[in-house]
Design a protein that fits this description.
The protein has about 140 residues and is mainly β. Helix content is about 0%, strand content about 45%. A hairpin with a 5-residue loop joins β5 and β6.
């Protein structure tokens, strides 16, 4: 536990937890917990209530990662908008345009096939309305 005044390299995180069993039954959310953590401020993340309403935009880590040759990238959209989801190599060259269209509110997924690309680290980036986020992924052949 971190004590004392908040430092420049720290931030506050708030979260709630729910549990889903193998039968699909889901518990109520816990009370909100606040924790002081080391690191920069957290980026926007997906927040969903029990009714399935989406409160924020989000870009998940691709799965599987590392991968060969295909992976899935999940993202969430809180307001209908034009979504651009692109993949770049480490030099910043665009290597794939996965989504380039208006998307409704909800959870979405895009498949990425890297069979024509060499092994290496790639960056995928989403832009929708006032939100943008990027993540890294690894192709291993």
């Amino acid at each position: 536990m971190i004590t004392g005044p908040l430092q420049a390299h720290e931030t506050t995180a708030k979260y709630k937890v729910t549990v889903k069993d193998l039968g699909g039954l889901e518990s109520d959310y816990s009370h909100e917990v606040e924790a002081r953590v080391e690191g920069e401020a957290l980026e926007k993340v997906i927040a969903v209530n029990l009714q399935g309403n989406i409160y924020n935009y989000g870009l998940d880590q691709n799965y599987p990662n590392p991968f060969n040759p295909t992976t899935s990238i999940k993202y969430s959209v809180k307001e209908k908008g034009f979504v651009s989801l692109k993949v770049y190599d480490m030099l910043g060259k665009e290597v794939a345009d996965l989504v380039n269209e208006t998307v409704d509110v909800g959870h979405h997924s895009a498949k990425f096939n890297a069979s024509e690309l060499p092994s290496g680290i790639y960056i995928y980036s989403i832009r929708v309305n006032d939100f943008s986020q990027s993540r890294k992924m690894l192709v291993l052949k």
